[in-house]
Amino acid sequence: MGEVLLSVENLRAGFETASGFLRAVDGVSFEVRRGEVLGLVGESGCGKTVTALSLLRLLPRPPAVIEGGRALFRGRDLLAMPIEELRKIRGGQIGMIFQEPMTALSPLHRIGDQLVEAARLHRDGAGADAWALGLDWLKRVGLPDPEQRMKDYPHQLSGGMRQRVMLAMAMLPEPELIIADEPTTALDVTIQAQIFELLLRLRGGDTAVLLITHDMGVVWDVCDRVHVMYAARLAEKGSRDATFERPAHPYTRGLLAAMPRLHGKTERLPDIPGQLPSLADPPPGCRFAPRCPLARAACRRTMPRMRTLEADHEVACWDGIWEEAEVENGARSSEVRTER
User: Fold this and answer.
1) Model's pTM, two decimal places?
2) Across-strand partners of 68?
């Protein structure tokens, strides 16, 4: 992979609520390299979207609060730079494809006007050519009758057509990084495949993609590396092959076990019992411990730190390291095993 384009360090963000502070992102660190597709996966409510929106400071403030951390894009901290400078990066150097295009596109403006605005803001010298540039991108994403679609309002387009418009709008400025937040939610599988094929074909060789999804099948098809997120924290990080072939975290194994297979016996898919803990009052130890079949007493008491298993494969789990690990209260593995 290429050089590091985005480096996120100890990102912490959450929301002020009537019942107290809810930390939706808790100490998340990762890197996105030039030219790669990085998948950020996990079930709904894990903090994936809040992570993405925090990077570009798109969360509503209040109630949202970015507590700390850094997000270095080409060496500059997105979380600390003046908002005027950040606006030049949003949509220009970093494109965003939102989960629901109907709420991302303005219902009051025609498709062409919105593409023209993006062209004039982020493509130097577009000027009078902005309309032609927007039309060209609608053709590139395969939107039928693009001349008419430029004159249409978003409500006149189907969900798949609106997502193609969002893809065109994100790609038009030729960004270095694209953040795709579950870009095929609510679309049928045929349209999903078309959208992902377009994204990979149009992005170019050096453009990086941060893909947020809960679909492990999509991750296998399009991603180079995978980061698994659970309850506001990263549980496992690694290459696609290492994560799928040698999953180290029980949560990752549960997600993979729940993937439907095309061949073999037709039987009920295994599920992960229980539900996500409250992020307003998370458990003191490993947040997956209440649902984990391998959990021990120390798991419920002490949060595991990320450790390296092999090149480009890390996990935050106590399982398998009882002989080496020393938990925060000083108890070694021999003492931990007596508590089982």
Assistant:
1) 0.89
2) 12
